[in-house]
Amino acid sequence: MNFFRKSGIGSDIRYSSDKTLDYIYYSILGGELHTKIRLKPLLNFFSTKKLQKNPKILELGCGFGINAFEIAKIDRGFEYDGFDLSEDAIAQGRKILQKKSLQKSIRLFCADATKYDFQNENKYDFVLLIDFLEHVVNPKEILSELRKLTHDKTIFLVSVPTKNYKKYFGDDFHRRVGHVHDGYSLLDLDKLFAGIEYESTFHEYSAGFPVNYVCSLYYKHNFENRYLNFLKNSLLGRLNFLDFLNDEKHGCSLFSVYESKSN
Question: Where are the beta strands (DSSP E) in 28-168?
Fold first, then answer.
C-alpha cells in the first residue's frame, strides 16, 4: 500500500453524511490517525495472503464496518457479517453499503454475536477481533462461544492496545473510548487463545516511535474551535507513516494472527 492508500483509510465514512463539508473532509483526510495505523497490519494480511474462494468473515465490534469496506477495496470476493451494539454505527454502515453497492458481500447487524442464532449459517473462515477485546470483561467466554462458529482452518485476526497505550493516548481518552483493560501483551493474548487451543503464528506491533508522540498530541489535545481541530487533523493525521521503531517496548498496538494448534 502506498502513502495515498494509507492516508485514505477510513475515508468511506464520507458516504454516511449528507453534508458537503464532511464529504470533502473525509475524502481528503480519511479516518482518524490511529485508525490508519492500526489497520495497516490487517490490510497487509488480506493483501498478501492467498485466500480461498469467497471466504466467510465474522467480526465482533465492527463499528460502522470500516474493516469490511477497506478489505473490499482489496478484493470484493468475500462474505462478511459484522456485529456491533451501536445502532448509530450500524445505521452509518448501512448507508455506506447502499452508496457503495456492497449489500451482497457485507451484512451488518446491531446485535450481540455471541447470542445470535447462527444455526443455519456455515462456519466462518476468518474471525476479526479488531480493537474489541479491550472493551469486554469476559474475553474467555466470548472466545469459547466463537469457537462454535469456526472450523479447524479458521483464522483469528486480533488487534489490541498494548500496555503503552495509555501513556501516549492519555488516560482520559482511554476511559472515554470504553476500555476495560489497560492493554494486552502478546503473552496475555497467547494465554487467552490457548484456552481454545489456538496459537499465534504471526504478530506485529504498530504505533511505535516516533508516531506514538504524534498520537499523544493528536488525542490529548482537542480544541473547541472546529477550524483549529481541522488544522490539527490535517497536519498530524497525515503523519501515520512515521511508524519506524516497533516492539513490545515502543508499540501502542499489537496485531496477531491465531491459528488452531491442530493444523
Answer: 56-60, 79-84, 106-110, 124-130, 150-161
